[in-house]
Every structure is written in C-alpha cells, then in structure tokens.
Amino acid sequence: MTPFEREQRIAEQIAKSGGYWIPMMQMFDIGVPGPCGNENSTYVTDDAVYKVNNLMNSGSIVALLHKILLHNFLFPDTAYQFHGFAGFDGRSVQPVFRQVRVANAIPATQIMIDTYMAALGFVKTENEGRFSNGQYIVWDVVPRNVLVDAEGDIFVVDAEIKRI
C-alpha cells in the first residue's frame, strides 16, 4: 500500500467513525453542481460553495490541509471550513470544504487583482498572477479565481500558496 493509499483509508475510517463521511452520490444533495476546475468540483447553494477536492494539485490530504490553512490566514474573507470527506467506499477520498458564496460577483480584472495583492504587501513576479511578499508565494491569482462584488470588494476564492 502506498502512503497515498494509506492516507486515503485512514481518512475514510476517521470520517465514517466521526460522522462526516459523504458518499459521493449524496454530494448532489448538498447543492447544485457548479463550475469545475482542475482540482475541484463545486456544489452551490444560496449562501455557500462546497468544493470537493480531488487532490490532483496537492497530492495528499495533509498537503491540501496545509494549503487551506495558508489560504485562511492570507484571505480570511474567503476562508474555507472543513465539511467532510466524500468518496466511494474503499476507493477515492476527497476532502470537502465550504466557502461563503460571494453573491452578485463577477471575475475581477487582472489590474484589480494586481492592485489588491499590492495592497496586501505582495509584489508581482515575472509570471502573470504570481506574487510574493518574502514569506509566501501565491500563484494562480487570476480572474477565474478572484471575484469582485457590486461594491468593488475583491475576494480571492482559489489560489495556490506556498510558504517560502
């Protein structure tokens, strides 16, 4: 058994014993299927977005949890809350997180994003949507992952983050 498979089985056992296991077919009961990306399938309600993460980018549950903590620290307005683990018994285990839905929002422009990140103390790097502040590197901060609401407030809803 690989370390990844071991992590999956342990997460499934803990989720089932703790009451936060969600059979994959019950995800449709949580919300309406929304847009999907490389690593997340989403389910949307009036006030929340549930993200089911396939671990493709993070590679492990532990690495994903670390990234979530960094996101919550840097972008508390769009903090993730752990909701449970979804999956198929004995096979895949995918963490599920809840994020407050930003109503009446549209994708921010890259200029808005660059200005917002600068206000947070980040400097643009040579790659579009990539920033650093000397402690963290944040990337994939592009219009598909950043929203602006009717008042002009910016919300980073998805980003890749690494501590330097």
List descriptors.
single chain, 164 residues, alpha+beta, 6-stranded mixed beta sheet, 4-stranded antiparallel beta sheet, 3 helices, globular
Write the layout of secondary structure elements.
Blueprint lengths: L2 H16 L2 E3 L8 E2 L6 E5 L3 E6 L7 H14 L5 E8 L5 E8 L5 E2 L2 H10 L3 E2 L6 E2 L3 E4 L6 E3 L5 E3 L3 E4 L1
Parallel strand pairs: 1-5
Antiparallel strand pairs: 2-3, 3-4, 4-6, 5-6, 7-11, 8-9, 9-10, 10-13, 11-12
Structure description:
Helix content is 24%, strand content 32%. A hairpin with a 3-residue loop joins strand 3 and strand 4. The strands form 3 sheets. The chain has a 6-stranded mixed β-sheet with strand order 1-5-6-4-3-2, covered by helices on one side. With 164 residues, it is an alpha+beta fold.
Give the C-alpha Rg.
17 Å
The outline comes out as globular
Note the main sheet. 6 strands, mixed
- Strand arrangement within the widest β-sheet reads 1-5-6-4-3-2
Mean pLDDT: 93
Strand content: 25-35%
- Amino-to-carboxy terminus distance: 32 Å
> How much helical structure, as a percent, in the residues?
10-25%
Please work out how many helical segments DSSP would assign. 3
Question: Pairing-aware structural class of the strands and helices?
Answer: alpha+beta
Q: Encode the helix/strand succession as letters.
A: HEEEEHEEEHEEEEEE
Low-confidence stretches: none
The number of strands is 13
